[in-house]
Structures are given as C-alpha cells and as structure tokens.
Amino acid sequence: MTKQDPEATEFPSEKDLKKTANSAQANLKASQPETKQKAAAQTAQSADNDNEAVIDKLLDKNQELEKKLRASQDQYLRAEAEIQNIKRHNQMEQADLIKYDGQKLATAILPSLDNLQRALQAQSSNKAQEESILTGVKMVLKHLQQALKENQVEEIPAAGQKFDPTLHQAVQTVPADDQHPAETVVEVLQTGYKLKDRVLRPSMVVVAQ
C-alpha cells in the first residue's frame, strides 16, 4: 500500500481555495439583489406611509379652514342683514319726520283756533262792537285755518258721522232718535284735527246710544 502525503489529504489546494472563494462570491452576489429589493420595498412603504400622513393632515386642515370660512360667511350675512335693517329703520324714521314735519307747530296753534271759535260764539250787547270783533276774529281764524291747510292739517269730520273711536272721543251720550241713529255723532264739543293720516287730537263729541 502506498502511503499518502498528509498535506494532500488534510489541507486544501490553492485550486480548491479559489473554487471556494468564487462560490462564496457568487452566493453573495446572488443574495444582494434580494436584499436591495427588500430595502427598496421598505423605503417605498415608508414613503407611502409618510405621504398618507401628510394627506390626512392636509385634509384635516382643509376641513378646519372650510368651517372657519362658513362661520365667517354666516357672520358676514348676519352683519349685512343687520345693516340693512338699520338702514330701513332710519329711512322710515326720516320719512316720518318729513311726512309729519310741522306737527309741533300745528298742535300749538290748535288752542288759538279754539279760542277764536269761542269768541265767535260769544254774544255782545253792543251791536257795532260785536260786528267789529266778529270781523276781526273771522279774519284771524281764516288765516290760521289756511296756514294749517297749507301744512296738510285738516279738521276731522264729526257732526252727523258714524262714531269712530280712532277719530272721535265720546265724552257724553244721549238717547238715539229718528234724526240721530245709534252710534252717530250728535254734537261736536271740540273739533279734532289730523296731520295727513295721523290724528293730532280726536274730536270731543256727544254720541247717540
């Protein structure tokens, strides 16, 4: 039997070492694409997660801004409506001031009219004096009535009219008869006046019942 060389059996040759190294390198190269693919997939997944988080934040912010916008629009509409109401109210007040301008003056003149009418109804023992007084009073009364008429202040019709509580003030009642049916004005104790459609004072009247 031939005795074997111990170096040939226990230690690999240079050729075997190269073959082993080449095999290891081949295995390493084969494993690298799979590792890179996994890393790339993990990176892509991470990027997708980050994008979704950003999108969620943007959506939440957008909803918050929409709520604020709707609230601002609602406040604007309310403020605009309030402004329009104030404008209409002011316009109505100005229209009333213009429409009823002179009411204070007209109301102040009415007692003078009353006194003149009473003077015309008074009797005097002196005929000449009575005629002179009557003429002067009639002239003053006429001028006052004309001034009131020019300012659209008019007497409220009452005698013989149907009683109207918005225009007449009943201070006395009498039994109704053929000449004065029920709920009609029998006598005017004090003339009432109105400025356009506003009653300055109602007529004081006696009403049939």
Order of helical and strand elements: HHHHEEEEEE
Number of helices: 4
| Widest beta sheet: strand line-up | 1-4-5
Radius of gyration of CA atoms, rounded to a whole number? 56 Å
Share of residues in strands:
5-15%
Q: What is the arithmetic mean of pLDDT?
A: 77
Unreliable stretches, pLDDT < 50, 5 or more residues?
1-11
Helix content: 55-70%
Which geometry do the CA atoms define?
Answer: rod-shaped
Helix/sheet category: alpha+beta
Strand tally is: 6
For the biggest sheet, the summary is: 3 strands, antiparallel
CA distance, first residue to last residue: 166 Å
List strands and helices in order, with pairings.
Layout: H1 6-10, H2 14-99, H3 103-121, H4 127-150, E1 153-155, E2 168-174, E3 185-190, E4 193-195, E5 198-201, E6 203-208
Parallel strand pairs: 2-6
Antiparallel strand pairs: 1-4, 3-6, 4-5
Helix pairs in contact: 3-4
What does this structure look like?
With 209 residues, this protein is α+β, with helices and mostly antiparallel strands. It is built from 4 helices and 6 strands. The protein has helices spanning 6-10, 14-99, 103-121, 127-150, and strands at residues 153-155, 168-174, 185-190, 193-195, 198-201, 203-208. A 3-stranded antiparallel sheet has the order 1-4-5. The model is unreliable at 1-11 (pLDDT under 50).
Keywords:
209 residues; alpha+beta; three-stranded antiparallel sheet; three-stranded mixed sheet; 4 helices; 6 strands; rod-shaped; disordered N terminus
